[in-house]
Amino acid sequence: MKLDIVHDLQAVYRKLVDSSSRPGLISDLGKEAAMLDEENAAGCSSSILLLALTLLDPEVTFKVYGSEAAAVENELNQLTFAKAVQADQADYLFLLKDAGAGSLEDAIEMANPGTFINPHKSATIIAETGMITEGNKLLLSGPGIQTSTGISIDLPGNWIERRSEKNKEYPTGVDLVFVDRNHQLLSLPRTTQITVCREVEEQWVM
User: Fold this and answer.
1) Which of 4, 45, 111, 137 is deepest in the core (most CB within 10 A)?
2) Does the N-terminal peptide bond of residue 156 adopt cis geometry, omega within 30 degrees of 0?
3) What is the rounded CA–CA span in Å between residue 136 and residue 121?
4) SS3 content of the chain, % helix, strand, coil (to 5)
5) Separation in Å, CA 66 to CA 16, 108, 126, 173
6) What is the pLDDT of residue 42?
7) H/E element holding 126?
8) Which residues, 6+ apart, have CB-to-CB distance to 181 below 8 Å?
9) How far is Cα 200 from Cα 109, in angstroms, rounded to an integer?
10) What string of pLDDT tens digits covers the 206 residues of the chain?
């Protein structure tokens, strides 16, 4: 079955909005991703390509991190007419699964946080990760969450600390979107607070 560029991308957008308005809600892009599996020549996962097709257009800019970043940027440019730029100028930063250790921290550091007058002009980081599941490794709280909710995400490094530092002057900051190899999507808006559960704190570099 071929991807319907209007209907199916609208479905992807709705799932992204749902997960962004209800942080901790894991959305499944599997159905839409399956439609791309045989025609995805972009050099990135089907989930990343779906989000790129949904979010990119000639009016926005982007940056790709990964071993084949230049080739992927060229393909995404041809598909969406969005322009590839340096990280600090990009509206969207895409981190592929082979981006390497420290790439997410670097992307968070470089990403445009917007300004107090124009916080909506900040960047969104979209990254491929290990498994995303419900769990209790990370507790999320904040707008869109009644009390708190738990998730588990296979993503080592000190990105939580970097994100906290980047987002300390609300409303400026960056939003994060994660997708795993099973096409599970998790959104962490800048307003979401992340607490590492004590029993797993030693596994993270904080």
Assistant:
1) 111
2) no
3) 33
4) 35, 25, 45
5) 23, 15, 12, 23
6) 67
7) strand 124-128
8) 45, 97, 128, 130, 131
9) 25
10) 588 888 999 999 999 999 999 999 999 999 999 988 666 666 788 999 999 999 999 999 999 999 999 999 999 999 999 999 999 999 999 999 999 889 999 999 999 999 999 999 999 999 999 999 999 899 999 999 988 899 999 998 999 999 999 999 999 999 999 999 999 999 999 999 999 986 544 444 43
The Cα–Cα gap between 48 and 79 comes to 13
Please name which of 179, 175, 200, 197 lies closest in space to residue 188, comparing C-alpha atoms: 175
What's the DSSP call for residue 23? T
Cα gap 44→60, rounded to integer Å: 19
Q: Which residue has the tokens 């499944």?
A: 28
Strand partners, 176: 125, 188
132-141 β-sheet, strand order: 149-153, 132-141, 193-196
Over its C-alpha atoms, the chain yields an Rg (Å, rounded) of: 16
Rounded distance, CA 91 to CA 63, Å? 8
